[in-house]
Design brief:
The protein has about 110 residues and is an alpha+beta fold. Helices cover about 50% and strands about 25% of the residues. It has a four-stranded antiparallel beta sheet with strand order 1-2-4-3, with helices on one face. Helix 1 crosses helix 2. It is elongated and about 75 Å long.
Length: about 110
């Protein structure tokens, strides 16, 4: 998992995501910011040659770890929905193509 910055306040943490980049950083930041209990969420890449994302979360009272886990869960659910919708669309397209081809043969 990610490393965290340990302070006395569990509502404000920085998570370090190793072997990740803007793809996960920005998507996760977006999902976390949709949570009304979040005051701030931002990420940075310390250096372009490092495959590391620093993700900062500040909440209005909930533990930042819980908000981080919910953001990951929400992003997973969204990704699964997009994949399922895409696969259905591909199946429908292929079926339509086969139908059109069989109509041309007749």
């Amino acid at each position: 998992m990610a490393g965290t910055e340990l302070t006395g306040d569990n509502t404000c943490l920085t998570f370090v995501l190793h072997n990740e980049d803007h793809t996960l950083g920005n998507a996760l930041r977006y999902m976390i910011m949709k949570n009304p209990d979040v005051e701030f969420c931002g990420y940075s890449i310390p250096h372009p040659s490092e495959k590391k994302v620093n993700l900062r979360i500040q909440t209005k009272g909930l533990p930042a770890v819980d908000v981080f886990k919910k953001g990951l869960s929400d992003l997973t659910a969204l990704s699964e929905h997009v994949l399922e919708t895409f696969e259905i669309s591909v199946q429908n397209f292929k079926a339509q193509q086969q139908e059109e081809e069989s109509m041309e043969v007749q």
